[in-house]
Amino acid sequence: MRTRIAERLGCDVPIFAFSHCRDVVVAVTKAGGFGVLGAATFGPEQLEAELRWIDDHIEGRPYGVDVIIPTKYDAKAEAETGRTDLHDLIPPEHKAFMKRILDEAGVPELPEDERERVHREIMEGRGAMTPEGARKLVRTALAHPQVKLVVSALGAPPPDIVAELKQRDVMLGALCGKPAHAVRQKEAGVELIIAQGTEAGGHTGDISTLVLVPQVIDAVNNEIPVLAAGGIARGSQVAAALALGAEGVWCGTIWLGTQESELNTFEKEAIFRARTEDAVRRRARTGKPVRMLKSKLSEAWEEPGAPSYLLPPLQGILYNEAHARVVRAQRGDLFSFPAGQVVGAMAGETTVKDVMYQMQLEYLEAMERLVALQPKE
Amino acid sequence: MRTRIAERLGCDVPIFAFSHCRDVVVAVTKAGGFGVLGAATFGPEQLEAELRWIDDHIEGRPYGVDVIIPTKYDAKAEAETGRTDLHDLIPPEHKAFMKRILDEAGVPELPEDERERVHREIMEGRGAMTPEGARKLVRTALAHPQVKLVVSALGAPPPDIVAELKQRDVMLGALCGKPAHAVRQKEAGVELIIAQGTEAGGHTGDISTLVLVPQVIDAVNNEIPVLAAGGIARGSQVAAALALGAEGVWCGTIWLGTQESELNTFEKEAIFRARTEDAVRRRARTGKPVRMLKSKLSEAWEEPGAPSYLLPPLQGILYNEAHARVVRAQRGDLFSFPAGQVVGAMAGETTVKDVMYQMQLEYLEAMERLVALQPKE
């Protein structure tokens, strides 16, 4: 399944792995795929450290970086970023609501030192999620010559970033959930579209991958490559994506269950326990719809009388602090983590190598099945 | 793409067409596919007339009938069916709400004679939607020897129906939206599972076709054939479905735009105008989630203060009377018709023959593309 995009980027198979975990990025890339580090929650210093580690382990192979350049953003939060503690911009009503959910469920507060550490990490990451913060991340990535792809998770980036990537011959990708987005992204200079269906984990739209991919390919006149994202975790789904005309697949959820993943045992067990129908789209995590495991925490925000959602980054700051409390208390009933609908088919820990092998094996089986249906010459 | 199910049922290609329109059923079957008449809105007498017409035109080929055997049903409505006018069981608040939407939008009332005709047709159809009504429909279908497949749209039918079909050697199919449904259906004697993704028109669940199909195949241990439904209207999507392991595809929305379709020009134009994101899941039409074109009518029922939805068949009776008013007034802004997400790619009138030809042509192109990616021997 060596497609044009695999040739262009220099990987063996067009299996793109989105992960916040450097170990996954390295392991996928070394297994012949293309790892993409989700950098949105890092500050520039941490990203620099992660990329240096990847450079040291990836044996000269190419990889990618994914940044979030938000289009909808709380303007006051942006203006104040770096000057004030963004946490202070969260309305007291929202803080009280989140606190009440956790207090009533008997989830202990974080110890002071851990609270401060979590708070600092979130602030570094969220500060990077402003347009200016994203620029810094892109520049950090560009200093690493093995970074051959930069992906913008929320639409086309501003022209200065596009120009800088072009100059350095780094490919620019963007995620899209509607054909109209793809048209705008192509016009803005995006060279690789990741058509992400509603079944994906994380920020998603309404349109399913099966419907979206052919529409996006048509929308860009098949002039730039399109990857399929959402609902892809096994070989038959890879074959389906290529049948739709995608040049490769973009997978995220499946890596969460690997040994290499950043999740701890409690978090992995919640993932393995989850059914497909538990991965729902909710706004509690960032203020925009994110497909994630539903829990008492996510559902409380859907109840009548709950406060309205905040804009990014404030909802995310509020949510992530609560999430840290939930994870520390190992409370599965309140654990909401971004995951796609493929989560229902993940039953136990694997390795990146296993996943890559099984995917390609099942892909070949699917191809055999398809070829057997062809009329004999 | 002649799969086992195509061989078993005696069609050339495993493209199953669900339609309420006998002309579509005949045209698809004559073009090598397998037409399935959606009989849920017919009374037994009308179904008998439709099937007789199909028998007269289908040139001895096999076809199918789809019935709705409801699992959730307003018990009072069922007890009263045939004895009282079901319309009288609809609470006055609900009637007043629906009337107010249309009155305020300036939609004229139906003339008295047309109101009576619509009312009579709905009652005949809805009466058939009780468990007992569905039995009558199945018996009507079984009197037609070219009916080789009976499909139950809402889960496994009761054991007496299963036994009767088996005795007559008519295949029994059922639609499912979750792997667990498929397991129960197989245990109940269902021989063909139609795994229907959330992107489908009509009653749907949450899980996308790309995720659902492999899960359902695994759930039934690949022991009975599975068709993919939802998001399939073109050849690349057919190829994707077969790549997933489906033995064929089940399409509904695409036929609405054909010359043969039962829709009038006003209705077809609304279909061609609709974008993918206009096909949303709402409960206004039957009381259960149905993917349909959104309109002021469907959205009014989602507003705070709207009455709660009625159980089948009462919500459907209320909705269908309003719908007849909307269609007569040709009010596109209030027109909500069941349609899947593929609706966004339908831009103008076609014929059944065209659709069948294009689907197979694009399927072959997709196969060529896939085969070209295979390593050379």
Automatic annotation (TrEMBL), chains A, B:
Database matches in SUPFAM superfamilies: Inosine monophosphate dehydrogenase (IMPDH)
Single GO molecular function: nitronate monooxygenase activity
InterPro entries for this protein: Aldolase_TIM, NMO
Alphabetical list of Pfam families matching this protein: NMO
UniProt keyword terms in alphabetical order: Flavoprotein, FMN, Monooxygenase, Oxidoreductase
Keyword Flavoprotein: yes
Keyword Oxidoreductase assigned: yes
Name of the protein: Nitronate monooxygenase
Organism of provenance: Propylenella binzhouense
